[in-house]
Specification:
Length: 245
Amino acid sequence: MRSTTTKVILFSYTNYPSLICNLEKEGVKMTQDDLLRHGSFTFDLQGVSRAASHQIVRHRIASFSQQSQRYVKITRSYGYLKPSGIPEDLKVPVEIHGRKMELSFADVMDLTRQAEEGLVATGIKAEDSRYLRPNAATTNIVMSMSPRQLIHFFNLRCAPDAQWEIRDVAWSMYGAVSLAAPRVFGPLPAAEESEFVRKRVMLINELVQKQDSAFEKTPPGELFHLELSPQLDFSHPVESFVRRY
Protein backbone atom coordinates (compact mmCIF):
# COMPACT_ATOMS: atom_id res chain seq x y z
CA MET A 1 0.00 0.00 0.00
CA ARG A 2 1.13 3.56 -0.58
CA SER A 3 0.27 7.02 0.66
CA THR A 4 -1.68 8.90 -1.98
CA THR A 5 -2.20 12.44 -3.26
CA THR A 6 -5.73 13.79 -3.09
CA LYS A 7 -7.14 15.26 -6.30
CA VAL A 8 -9.96 17.81 -6.24
CA ILE A 9 -11.49 18.19 -9.70
CA LEU A 10 -14.22 20.72 -10.44
CA PHE A 11 -15.66 18.53 -13.15
CA SER A 12 -18.86 20.36 -14.05
CA TYR A 13 -20.46 23.69 -13.14
CA THR A 14 -23.08 26.17 -14.26
CA ASN A 15 -21.93 28.53 -17.01
CA TYR A 16 -23.11 31.71 -15.33
CA PRO A 17 -22.22 34.19 -18.09
CA SER A 18 -24.32 32.16 -20.53
CA LEU A 19 -27.14 31.68 -18.01
CA ILE A 20 -27.31 35.37 -17.13
CA CYS A 21 -27.19 36.43 -20.78
CA ASN A 22 -29.98 34.05 -21.81
CA LEU A 23 -32.20 35.07 -18.89
CA GLU A 24 -31.67 38.77 -19.50
CA LYS A 25 -32.76 38.27 -23.12
CA GLU A 26 -36.03 36.99 -21.67
CA GLY A 27 -36.31 39.99 -19.37
CA VAL A 28 -35.20 38.14 -16.21
CA LYS A 29 -32.65 39.90 -14.02
CA MET A 30 -30.46 37.79 -11.76
CA THR A 31 -29.68 39.18 -8.32
CA GLN A 32 -26.71 37.96 -6.27
CA ASP A 33 -29.10 35.86 -4.20
CA ASP A 34 -30.47 34.33 -7.41
CA LEU A 35 -26.94 33.36 -8.44
CA LEU A 36 -26.50 31.49 -5.18
CA ARG A 37 -29.78 29.61 -5.50
CA HIS A 38 -29.59 28.72 -9.20
CA GLY A 39 -26.61 26.69 -10.25
CA SER A 40 -24.71 23.52 -9.52
CA PHE A 41 -21.08 22.53 -9.03
CA THR A 42 -19.93 18.93 -9.33
CA PHE A 43 -16.62 17.81 -7.84
CA ASP A 44 -14.75 14.57 -8.41
CA LEU A 45 -12.82 14.00 -5.19
CA GLN A 46 -10.17 11.35 -5.69
CA GLY A 47 -8.00 9.80 -3.01
CA VAL A 48 -9.87 11.03 0.06
CA SER A 49 -9.84 8.85 3.14
CA ARG A 50 -12.92 7.04 4.37
CA ALA A 51 -12.63 9.20 7.49
CA ALA A 52 -13.04 12.35 5.38
CA SER A 53 -15.76 10.90 3.12
CA HIS A 54 -17.86 10.12 6.20
CA GLN A 55 -17.70 13.81 7.10
CA ILE A 56 -18.48 14.96 3.57
CA VAL A 57 -21.67 12.93 3.19
CA ARG A 58 -23.05 14.47 6.38
CA HIS A 59 -23.84 17.55 4.29
CA ARG A 60 -27.36 16.43 3.46
CA ILE A 61 -28.36 19.03 0.86
CA ALA A 62 -26.08 17.60 -1.80
CA SER A 63 -25.87 14.66 -4.18
CA PHE A 64 -23.20 11.98 -3.77
CA SER A 65 -21.88 9.02 -5.72
CA GLN A 66 -19.18 7.09 -3.89
CA GLN A 67 -16.89 4.31 -5.02
CA SER A 68 -18.17 0.99 -3.71
CA GLN A 69 -15.98 -0.88 -1.24
CA ARG A 70 -18.00 -4.00 -1.86
CA TYR A 71 -16.80 -4.61 -5.40
CA VAL A 72 -13.52 -2.69 -5.68
CA LYS A 73 -10.68 -5.13 -5.17
CA ILE A 74 -7.90 -4.26 -2.77
CA THR A 75 -4.42 -4.64 -4.25
CA ARG A 76 -0.87 -3.72 -3.33
CA SER A 77 -1.41 -0.39 -5.10
CA TYR A 78 -4.44 0.46 -2.97
CA GLY A 79 -3.84 3.83 -1.35
CA TYR A 80 -4.18 5.31 2.10
CA LEU A 81 -3.67 8.71 3.71
CA LYS A 82 -1.25 9.15 6.58
CA PRO A 83 -1.76 12.15 8.89
CA SER A 84 1.24 14.46 8.64
CA GLY A 85 1.39 14.51 12.44
CA ILE A 86 2.53 10.88 12.44
CA PRO A 87 6.28 10.67 11.59
CA GLU A 88 7.26 8.20 8.88
CA ASP A 89 9.79 6.49 11.12
CA LEU A 90 7.62 6.40 14.25
CA LYS A 91 6.99 2.87 15.48
CA VAL A 92 4.71 1.78 18.31
CA PRO A 93 4.95 -1.43 20.35
CA VAL A 94 2.26 -4.07 19.79
CA GLU A 95 1.81 -7.60 21.06
CA ILE A 96 0.26 -10.47 19.12
CA HIS A 97 -0.14 -13.82 20.93
CA GLY A 98 2.69 -12.94 23.29
CA ARG A 99 5.03 -11.85 20.53
CA LYS A 100 6.17 -8.24 20.83
CA MET A 101 7.07 -6.10 17.84
CA GLU A 102 7.18 -2.48 16.75
CA LEU A 103 5.14 -1.28 13.77
CA SER A 104 4.96 1.96 11.83
CA PHE A 105 1.76 3.45 10.42
CA ALA A 106 2.71 2.10 6.99
CA ASP A 107 3.31 -1.36 8.49
CA VAL A 108 -0.19 -1.43 9.95
CA MET A 109 -1.73 -0.29 6.66
CA ASP A 110 0.12 -3.04 4.81
CA LEU A 111 -0.91 -5.66 7.38
CA THR A 112 -4.60 -4.79 6.96
CA ARG A 113 -4.17 -5.00 3.19
CA GLN A 114 -2.49 -8.40 3.43
CA ALA A 115 -5.14 -9.69 5.84
CA GLU A 116 -7.97 -8.55 3.57
CA GLU A 117 -6.34 -10.14 0.53
CA GLY A 118 -5.73 -13.29 2.57
CA LEU A 119 -9.39 -13.61 3.56
CA VAL A 120 -10.49 -13.19 -0.04
CA ALA A 121 -7.94 -15.82 -1.14
CA THR A 122 -9.47 -18.34 1.27
CA GLY A 123 -12.91 -17.80 -0.24
CA ILE A 124 -14.32 -15.22 2.17
CA LYS A 125 -16.60 -12.79 0.36
CA ALA A 126 -14.99 -9.45 -0.49
CA GLU A 127 -17.92 -7.65 1.13
CA ASP A 128 -17.02 -9.35 4.42
CA SER A 129 -13.24 -9.12 4.04
CA ARG A 130 -13.44 -5.36 3.59
CA TYR A 131 -14.37 -4.98 7.27
CA LEU A 132 -10.63 -5.03 7.90
CA ARG A 133 -10.11 -1.90 5.81
CA PRO A 134 -9.03 1.09 7.95
CA ASN A 135 -10.42 4.64 7.90
CA ALA A 136 -7.16 5.74 6.25
CA ALA A 137 -7.97 3.70 3.10
CA THR A 138 -8.76 6.04 0.22
CA THR A 139 -11.91 6.26 -1.83
CA ASN A 140 -13.35 8.41 -4.63
CA ILE A 141 -16.54 10.42 -4.28
CA VAL A 142 -18.50 12.69 -6.62
CA MET A 143 -20.33 15.56 -4.94
CA SER A 144 -22.78 18.10 -6.39
CA MET A 145 -23.94 21.19 -4.50
CA SER A 146 -25.61 24.52 -5.16
CA PRO A 147 -23.52 27.66 -4.53
CA ARG A 148 -25.53 28.43 -1.39
CA GLN A 149 -24.79 25.02 0.11
CA LEU A 150 -21.15 25.19 -0.95
CA ILE A 151 -20.74 28.43 0.99
CA HIS A 152 -22.23 26.71 4.04
CA PHE A 153 -19.79 23.82 3.47
CA PHE A 154 -16.84 26.21 3.19
CA ASN A 155 -17.80 28.14 6.31
CA LEU A 156 -17.71 24.90 8.32
CA ARG A 157 -14.89 22.99 6.66
CA CYS A 158 -12.45 25.83 5.95
CA ALA A 159 -12.42 26.82 9.61
CA PRO A 160 -9.14 26.49 11.53
CA ASP A 161 -10.68 23.91 13.87
CA ALA A 162 -11.92 21.69 11.02
CA GLN A 163 -10.27 18.28 10.64
CA TRP A 164 -7.04 18.72 8.64
CA GLU A 165 -7.90 16.55 5.63
CA ILE A 166 -11.37 17.89 4.93
CA ARG A 167 -10.06 21.43 5.55
CA ASP A 168 -7.44 20.93 2.82
CA VAL A 169 -10.10 19.58 0.47
CA ALA A 170 -12.49 22.44 1.26
CA TRP A 171 -9.89 25.13 0.56
CA SER A 172 -8.95 23.42 -2.68
CA MET A 173 -12.63 23.36 -3.67
CA TYR A 174 -12.99 27.03 -2.75
CA GLY A 175 -10.04 27.88 -4.98
CA ALA A 176 -11.62 25.96 -7.86
CA VAL A 177 -15.02 27.70 -7.65
CA SER A 178 -13.33 31.09 -7.21
CA LEU A 179 -11.62 30.53 -10.55
CA ALA A 180 -14.66 29.10 -12.34
CA ALA A 181 -17.31 31.50 -10.99
CA PRO A 182 -15.70 34.59 -9.43
CA ARG A 183 -18.94 36.58 -9.68
CA VAL A 184 -20.73 34.03 -7.50
CA PHE A 185 -18.10 33.22 -4.87
CA GLY A 186 -16.67 36.18 -3.04
CA PRO A 187 -15.19 36.41 0.46
CA LEU A 188 -16.61 33.78 2.79
CA PRO A 189 -18.93 34.96 5.57
CA ALA A 190 -16.65 33.13 8.01
CA ALA A 191 -13.87 35.58 7.09
CA GLU A 192 -15.66 38.28 9.09
CA GLU A 193 -15.05 36.36 12.31
CA SER A 194 -11.86 34.43 11.60
CA GLU A 195 -8.47 35.98 10.81
CA PHE A 196 -7.31 32.55 9.61
CA VAL A 197 -10.13 32.35 7.05
CA ARG A 198 -9.75 35.99 6.00
CA LYS A 199 -6.03 35.62 5.22
CA ARG A 200 -6.57 32.42 3.29
CA VAL A 201 -9.40 33.93 1.24
CA MET A 202 -7.11 36.83 0.30
CA LEU A 203 -4.28 34.45 -0.59
CA ILE A 204 -6.53 32.32 -2.79
CA ASN A 205 -7.86 35.42 -4.54
CA GLU A 206 -4.28 36.42 -5.36
CA LEU A 207 -3.39 32.94 -6.62
CA VAL A 208 -6.55 32.72 -8.73
CA GLN A 209 -6.03 36.16 -10.30
CA LYS A 210 -2.46 35.26 -11.28
CA GLN A 211 -3.66 32.10 -13.06
CA ASP A 212 -6.89 33.43 -14.57
CA SER A 213 -5.36 34.32 -17.95
CA ALA A 214 -3.83 30.85 -18.30
CA PHE A 215 -7.20 29.32 -17.41
CA GLU A 216 -8.93 31.39 -20.09
CA LYS A 217 -6.48 30.05 -22.68
CA THR A 218 -7.15 26.43 -21.74
CA PRO A 219 -9.03 24.59 -24.54
CA PRO A 220 -12.69 23.80 -23.71
CA GLY A 221 -13.12 20.38 -22.11
CA GLU A 222 -9.58 20.18 -20.78
CA LEU A 223 -8.52 20.30 -17.15
CA PHE A 224 -6.62 23.29 -15.83
CA HIS A 225 -4.22 22.61 -12.98
CA LEU A 226 -4.82 25.31 -10.36
CA GLU A 227 -1.64 25.81 -8.34
CA LEU A 228 -2.49 26.44 -4.69
CA SER A 229 0.44 24.72 -3.00
CA PRO A 230 2.92 25.43 -1.44
CA GLN A 231 1.53 28.91 -0.79
CA LEU A 232 -1.60 27.53 0.87
CA ASP A 233 0.45 25.22 3.09
CA PHE A 234 -1.80 22.14 2.98
CA SER A 235 -1.40 19.48 5.65
CA HIS A 236 -1.16 16.76 2.98
CA PRO A 237 -0.60 16.64 -0.81
CA VAL A 238 -3.64 18.02 -2.65
CA GLU A 239 -3.89 18.92 -6.35
CA SER A 240 -6.70 21.12 -7.74
CA PHE A 241 -8.15 21.00 -11.24
CA VAL A 242 -10.92 22.90 -13.04
CA ARG A 243 -12.50 21.78 -16.30
CA ARG A 244 -12.63 24.66 -18.79
CA TYR A 245 -15.96 25.46 -20.46
